[in-house]
Design goal:
With 100 residues, the protein is mainly β. The protein is built from no helices and nine strands. Strands 1, 2, 3, 4, 5, 6 and 7 form a seven-stranded antiparallel beta sheet that branches. The protein starts with a strand and ends in a 5-residue tail after the last strand. The relative contact order is 0.20.
Length: 100
């Protein structure tokens, strides 16, 4: 889910949606007078995508670039317990990790 914050009040009488590149247009949910939420398409890894707000199905706002990443899933941590002192090695196993 992405959150879009507006510097002006968003009308509750307008139909908002989010356009994610050429992938999908999804309904935007107005959570307050200045905040919209849109569910982004699923990510298959780390990817950059353009997003714009669509008003009443035809007026497009500015296009912004966002980065999507697949959710992280941890499967195992070794060791399962560590002392409170620093400097102990830790191995993490799972999916969805990427370098930043």
């Amino acid at each position: 889910t992405i959150t879009v914050t507006s510097s002006s009040v968003l009308s509750d009488k307008v139909d908002y949606s989010c356009q994610f590149g050429s992938l999908a247009t999804v309904s935007a949910f107005r959570s307050s007078d200045s905040v919209l939420n849109c569910v982004s398409p699923p990510a298959t890894g780390l990817s950059t995508l353009s997003v714009s707000i669509v008003v009443n199905a035809d007026e497009r706002g500015d296009v912004h670039r966002i980065q999507l990443s697949k959710g992280i899933s941890l499967s195992r941590v070794i060791p399962s317990a560590l002392p409170t002192s620093a400097g102990c090695p830790l191995t993490v196993f799972g999916e969805g990790f990427f370098s930043s």
